[in-house]
Amino acid sequence: MDDEDELVRTDIAQGDREFVLGSVREDGGAIRDAPEALKADREVVLGAVRQNGWALQYAAPALQADREIVLAAVRQEGLALFFASQDLRADHEIVLAAMEVHVYMLGAAAEAVKADREFVLDAVQRDEHAFLYAADALQADHEFVLAVMKKNGNALPYATDAFKADREIVLAAVQQDGRALQYASDALRADLTIVTTAVRQNGGALFHAAEALQSDEWLRMLACRGSSLPTRACAFVKLARDRADAAIQSQVDLFLIKRGLADWISAKEVKARGSRHRKRRRSN
Questions:
Q1: Total domains present in the chain
Q2: Does the pLDDT of residue 17 top 60, yes or no?
Q3: Would you call 1 exposed, middle or buried from its count of C-beta atoms within 10 A (0-12, 13-18, 19+)?
Q4: Does 155 lie in the same domain as 210?
Q5: How does residue 277 score in pLDDT terms, banded at 50, 70 and 90?
Q6: Residue 113 pLDDT greater than 50, yes or no
Q7: Backbone angles phi, psi at 198, to 5 degrees
Q8: 26-76 confidence digits (pLDDT tens)
Q9: What angle do CA 100, 103, 105 make, to 5 degrees?
Q10: Using the 8-state DSSP alphabet, how is residue 35 labeled?
Q11: Residue that terminates a domain, selected from 109, 137, 168
Q12: Is the dihedral of CA 62, 87, 132, 119 positive or negative?
C-alpha cells in the first residue's frame, strides 16, 4: 500500500461524511475503513454497494436487511447474497437477481426457496447447474425430476444414478437435448429407442451410444442428417472427391479422423453409391 492510499484510509476513518460518500462511490470497498456510524448510514451504504456489491458485508445489520440496498448489491455482485439477512435470502426477486450474475447463488438462498418447485424449475430451465442446489426432497422427487428434464436435459448429470437409469427420465432428457445421452446408464445407452430419440435430436449423440449401436448404419445415417457438423462435412467431402485432388482429399480425411467422422462419411458415400446404382438399374 502506498502513502496516498494510507492517507485516504486515514481520512475515511476520521469519518467526514461527504468525503466518505465521495470515496465509496468511486470504490465501494472503501467503506470497510469508515466509522460504524457511516456503515449504518443508508446513503453511504447504498452508494458503496452500487459500486461494489461486496461492500454489503461491511454494512450495519439493519442495512443488510434493507431490500433496496441488498437488491442493488446482488445486481452488482451476486455473491453479495451471502451477506443479506435471512429474510431477504428468501426473497425470490433478490435471489433471482443474484442468480443472473452467478447461477450458483441459489445455494445461498433460504431453504424455502430451494424447495420451491416452480422457482427451481424456472431456474433450471435457465441453467442446468441450478438443479445442484435444489432441496434434497426435490432432487429425489420423480415427478419433479421428470419436469426438469423436459425443460433442460443437460441437468441429467446432476440427477442420481437411479434417475440416470430411469427410462422415462432419460427419454425426456434426450428428447430435450440428445447430448444428455452421455449421462445415461450403460443399459439405456444401449436402448435403441433411447438412442434413436437422442440421435434425432442431435446427431452427435451417437458418439455416446453403446458401441454396438455406434456401428449401426441406419443410426449413422440418421446422425449425419441430425448434426450440422457431419452435414457440412459430407458436403465438404463431396467437393473434395469431385475435384479429385489428392492433397485436398488427404486434408479432408485428416479433418474427419480428428472429429471421429470418417466412418460416418464412408457410410454416407456407400449409401449414395447404392442410390446411384439403383437409379441406373431403373433407367436401364
A1: 3
A2: yes
A3: exposed
A4: yes
A5: very low
A6: yes
A7: -65, -45
A8: 998 889 988 899 999 999 999 999 999 999 999 999 999 999 999 999 999
A9: 100
A10: -
A11: 109
A12: negative
Which H or E run includes 219?
A: helix 217-225
Nearest-5° Cα angle at 122, 120 to 126:
110
Q: Is residue 239 pLDDT above 70, yes or no?
A: no
Residue spans of beta strands (DSSP E) within the chain: none
Q: Which has the higher per-residue pLDDT, 246 or 105?
A: 105
The cell numbers describing 178, all together, are 440428445
Residues 154 and 87 in one domain: no
Residue 68 identity (one-letter amino acid): E
pLDDT, one tens digit per residue, over 201-221 is: 988 898 899 999 988 888 888
**H or E element that contains 112:** helix 111-114
Q: Which of 122-126, 131-135, 204-208 has the lowest mean pLDDT?
A: 204-208
Name the one residue in this structure whose C-alpha cell is 454396438: 212
Query: Taking the CB of residue 169, how many other CB atoms lie within 10 A of it?
Result: 24
Nearest by Cα to 128 from 179, 191, 168, 76: 179
Burial (0-12, 13-18, 19+ Cβ within 10 Å), 243: exposed
Residues 189, 284: one domain? no
Task: Read off the DSSP letter of residue 51.
Answer: H
Residue 197: CA atoms inside 13 Å, Cβ hemisphere, count?
21
Does one domain contain both 89 and 122?
no
Contacts of 188 (CB under 8 A, 6+ apart): 164, 165, 167, 170, 194
**CB burial of residue 246 (10 Å; 0-12, 13-18, 19+):** exposed
- The verdict on 220 and 235 lying in the same domain is no
Structural domain harbouring 210: 115-225
Last residue of a domain, one of 53, 84, 109: 109
